[in-house]
Amino acid sequence: MTDHSPRDANERDIPDDDVERLAAPLRAPVRFGEDFDERVMRDVRAAARTTARAPWWRRGPDVRVTPLTGLALAAGLTLFAVLGRFSAGPRAVDSRSVAAAHASPDTVYVVRFTLVHPEAHHVALVGDFNGWSPSATPLASATGDSVWAASVTLPAGRHEYAFIVDGERWVSDPYATTISDDFGTSSSVLRVGSAS
Amino acid sequence: MSDEEAITRVLAGEADAFAVLVRRYRDNFARFATRMVGNESDAEDVLQSAFVRAYRALDRCRQPEQFAAWLYQIVLNECRSFTTRRARRARWYDDDQETLASIAAESTELEEADEGPSLHELQRALDLLPAEQREAFVLKHVEDVSYEEMSRITGAGVSALKMRVKRACARLRELLEEVAHD
């Protein structure tokens, strides 16, 4: 051990016997009441029920066309991928990919990705459309709450994507088609530009 | 059922599978929490809260095979939060001297055999240590956790942890000697 701090008499090495004399009584087992497990599980089940009651995640995805004339877009398409990880329990819910009908070959699309994540401090969108770069497409929480969103211009076709939460947690969309790469990482698949 | 299997089932929506993990780890963490907060009653509340917090955050347990180490972090944080709240609410002890007198009185009353300090005396002395020293001592000498694992659990460096353990041992010895001489 490297230690450059001043040492005093209190920092002398303590003989092992002395340490054992101090520690051994503290190793006595501690057993909680027989109902401990049941009390924990009652809270766990309550947490699970709270999750099931959460009203907002059951809302259907909000799909709308977004005209962006300044970008000379022929059409817009908004995707809300609502994916929840709630304080009440580990659960992911509800998303949908959508496709535009009557698209011309020149059509590009604005897809709005939304992640509902009450505990996130930072969310980024990664996908084949941004080189899977965690810094390329951060989501913004405009209202300061748990809804994170970003709009991305995409060409027609098939796209793979995922969310990165707090710079480390890879979150795929469980309600979209999911694929796994060679390393076992799951990503979601989005098709735009064709009715499917 | 392995930890990994239990976690998979919980994440698939089978909340009752979490009972396997509670049953498996409650006793080890019951002792750890008790040593950290000073009494079994508060430790029960702290550990109950820690298990529920672990359930809620289970999807963030990125290495299910390391569930125990992950749970250690949660329990430790719950203990820290509890003792901080308790310290804010009211001083648990008015000062060291008062507690030392209390230890001495109880020691005399119990008339322990002269084989060393009693569990009660040690727990009371442990309560007087700075939180970081108490954590380090309990993890190392009560729970027999390696310094490398302690570093992962506490976020502190190995050198700092070794120093905390050493200081904790010295301070515990001082406290108990003061009691013996009263």
Explain this structure to me?
The complex is a heterodimer of chains A (196) and B (182). With 196 residues, chain A is of the alpha+beta class. Chain A has a domain at 59-192: Immunoglobulin-like (Sandwich). Chain A contains two helices and seven strands; from the N terminus they run H-H-E-E-E-E-E-E-E. Chain A has helices at 16-23, 36-53, and strands at 108-116, 123-127, 147-155, 157-165, 169-171, 177-180, 186-192. The termini of chain A are far apart. In chain B, helix 2 (18-37) crosses helix 3, helix 3 crosses helix 4 and helix 7 (131-142) crosses helix 9 (158-181). Helix content of chain B is 76%, strand content 0%. Chain B is elongated. Chain B folds into two domains: 3-89, Orthogonal Bundle (Rna Polymerase Sigma Factor, Chain: A), CATH 1.10.1740; 96-181, Winged helix-like DNA-binding domain superfamily/Winged helix DNA-binding domain (Arc Repressor Mutant, subunit A). With 182 residues, chain B is mostly helical. Chain B has helices at residues 3-11, 18-37, 40-56, 67-89, 96-110, 119-128, 131-142, 147-154, 158-181. Chains A and B meet through helix 1 and helix 2 of A and helix 2, helix 3, helix 6, helix 7 and helix 9 of B.
